[in-house]
Design goal:
The complex is a heterodimer. Chain A is mainly α. Helices cover 51% and strands 5% of the residues of chain A. Chain A is globular and about 55 Å long. In chain A, 35% of the residues are buried. Chain B is of the alpha/beta class. Helix content of chain B is 48%, strand content 10%. In chain B, α7 links the parallel β3 and β4. The termini of chain B are far apart. Classes of the chains: A mainly alpha, B alpha/beta.
Chain lengths: 203, 430
């Protein structure tokens, strides 16, 4: 728990993570070995460099934003000891968003409240990839930033600007030239978010 | 104290006599007394029994056979092109998270995970207490490996290496060329055979008719320094490498005396032109032994073959591909150089059950018309991967230590842009 440097996973920790995230015991131990193999410094926490060492992530245009999602704003002591490190608890919490929704039926062992991998929480995760300053709104600038990350140098500023404007126009219902979370949810209403934002975790 | 020495020396004498008669002499002449075979049979039976017990206790885990991704493009849209939508990020995100959970590259630089335990705690990540009998068996295994096999193997390797140095130096003094060559080959073979016994290596060679000939280049996938011993057990090769100091240096200089190898000074290695020229000179001289090269440039964990560096394929000789596949059940041969030093690696090798591997000699290949070195390298790599049952990856083994090039990310960005802006006419003009 917290920022212990020891690399052994205790049963109590596993139980807590199970309750919080809904992963099974074997999934947690398997992901723990993965966490451990990424943790080159062997200090029980991952830094941004540790993530960037994964070649497939490093070439992903949104790689930096995805890595960012593991390091939440402010230091919630349960998940990060320092701002630039995430411990196993925090690692699992972020990954929990990508559990398939069907898995919830098998595991009734969750704490009350919405599970981390509900549709709303998945959408919120995606929303936060855009919303860098965490003001619950995607501004035109923030949208442009993400667009620029995805297209690199291949599209001009003007064209990118018009794409951003069009997107905001279509989504914005209250006229504030920004996309709020509810507007975001409305746009993605027809999208199968549960399937697109779930990955298979081995049992 | 007197009594101790009185007992110790006869024991030592008996020990050495056994060693020489039962292991060294047969090894030197390439015949087998069947002791290793019996040992392997007992080992296999014990491991099967142990596995059976573990499976009764818990379900066996499946191994996820992830399809090899060679940096293939992530497909954000269902069609070939379409306007940008807010949901496009979802695909990139999912692929990113998938690669965090498991990726194709970083797993090649750590030892392979076994499906069933082979009674070595080092290979079992989830070691749990299953039953008393199993733990006892494991304990017996530890005693056998550390107290019986280890001293035996160390003695053998020491003898093997010293014989290599002494033998090659002696041959080096001979003036007559033809006999010298033949003797030098004999000495090398004998020493490598003793060293192989020193690791309890059981090697199965396939397709010996394709064995590399003089004036050619032998190319193989790289898992550990032991690959050299494995290959040299069945043929003589000219080694290529950097000049080392210390014990390695002594061995290198001794080997150089009896037949020509190619050792480079550290500074010379930077000059690619010089390296290629020296290799070319060696290859063009048809009386010299075939060169042994590992084009991956680094040790990979024997589940895949990574990018072959094109340098070896620009020299121009005939390429003889060789595939080496170790059986992980008996001992993990992969050298994780960032985790273990050479000495601790050798110690781990000598305390494994055995090293079992298959070596396939593949038919010689030559560069085709209109094929450049990179394409040729990839063709050879695929042949080796296919024969050895290894995953064929285009990723560079150098990623073990270096960062991936930005150009790959730019490629992804380019492809996505093409999708989004492919049809220009649909965009409102500013």
């Amino acid at each position: 728990m917290g920022s212990r440097a020891s690399s052994l996973l205790r049963e109590e920790d596993i139980e807590e993570i199970k309750k919080e995230t809904g992963f099974s015991h074997s999934q947690i131990t398997r992901l723990y070995s993965r966490f451990h193999s990424l943790d080159k410094g062997e200090n029980g926490a991952l830094s941004r460099e540790d993530f960037q060492r994964i070649p497939e992530l490093a070439i992903n245009p949104l790689g930096d934003r995805i890595i960012n999602a593991f390091f939440p704003e402010g230091t919630n002591k349960k998940y990060t000891a320092r701002e630039d490190q995430v411990n196993f608890r925090g690692f699992m919490r972020t990954l929990a968003h990508f559990r398939p929704v069907e898995d919830n039926e098998k595991n009734k062992d969750l704490t009350s409240g919405e599970p981390l991998n509900s549709r709303t929480n998945k959408l919120h995760f995606a929303f936060q990839l855009y919303d860098l300053d965490r003001d619950d709104k995607i501004s035109r600038d923030e949208l442009l930033q993400v667009l620029r990350m995805m297209v690199g140098v291949n599209i001009s500023d003007e064209q990118l600007g018009s794409i951003a404007d069009r997107t905001i126009q279509e989504a914005d219902t209250n006229g504030d030239m920004c996309i709020s979370f509810s507007e975001f949810t409305k746009v993605l209403e027809k999208v199968d978010v549960e399937q697109k934002m779930s990955i298979r975790f081995l049992h | 104290m007197e009594g101790f020495w009185a007992v110790f020396f006869p024991v030592l004498r008996v020990w050495f006599t056994c060693l020489v008669v039962l292991i060294m002499l047969p090894a030197m002449f390439g015949i087998s007394l069947g002791i290793t075979e019996t040992y392997m049979k007992i080992l296999i039976k014990t491991l099967e029994w142990a596995t059976h017990r573990i499976q009764r206790a818990s379900r066996a885990e499946e191994i996820l056979k992830h399809s090899a991704s060679n940096g293939e493009f992530i497909q954000p849209k269902s069609a070939d092109h379409g306007d940008f939508t807010l949901s496009d990020v979802l695909y990139f995100t999912r692929r990113g998270i998938e690669s965090i959970v498991e990726d194709d590259v970083t797993q090649r630089f750590t030892s392979e995970e076994l499906v069933s335990w082979n009674l070595l705690t080092r290979t079992n990540n989830n070691f749990q207490y299953i039953s008393l009998r199993l733990t006892v068996l494991w304990g017996v295994g530890v005693v056998v490996r550390y107290c019986i096999l280890l001293p035996l193997r160390i003695t053998l390797t020491a003898i093997g290496l010293s014989w290599l140095v002494i033998g090659t130096t002696m041959v080096g003094f001979l003036p007559n060329f033809r006999v010298k060559g033949w003797l030098s080959e004999l000495v090398h073979l004998m020493c490598y055979r003793i060293c192989a016994r020193g690791l309890s290596a059981t090697i199965h060679y396939h397709n010996k008719q394709n064995r590399p000939k003089r004036g050619g280049i032998c190319v193989a996938n790289h898992t550990s320094p032991i690959d050299v011993v494995i290959l040299a057990n069945d043929g003589c090769y000219a080694m290529v490498g950097q000049v080392h100091g210390g014990l390695m240096g002594v061995v290198q200089r001794a080997m150089e005396r009896s037949c020509p190898h190619i050792w480079f000074e550290r500074a010379e290695m930077k000059d690619r032109h010089l390296v290629t020229q020296r290799l070319r000179d060696h290859v063009n001289d048809k009386t010299k032994l075939p060169i042994l090269i590992f084009p991956e440039g680094t040790c990979i964990n024997n589940t895949s073959v990574m990018m072959f560096k094109k340098g070896s394929f620009e020299i121009g000789g005939t390429i003889y591909p060789v595939a080496i596949k170790y059986d992980p059940q008996f001992g993990d041969a992969f050298w994780n150089s960032s985790k273990y030093s050479m000495v601790s690696y050798l110690l781990r090798m000598m305390t494994s059950w055995a090293i079992v591997c298959n070596v396939w000699y593949l038919p010689p290949m030559a560069q085709k018309e209109g094929e450049d070195a990179v394409q040729f390298a990839n063709r050879v790599k695929s042949t080796i991967a296919q024969q050895g049952g290894l995953v064929d990856l285009a990723w560079d083994g150098g990623l073990k230590r270096a960062k991936v090039k930005d150009s790959f990310k730019e490629q992804q960005q380019k492809k996505y842009s093409h999708m989004v802006v492919g049809d220009d006419s649909r965009f409102p003009q500013p």
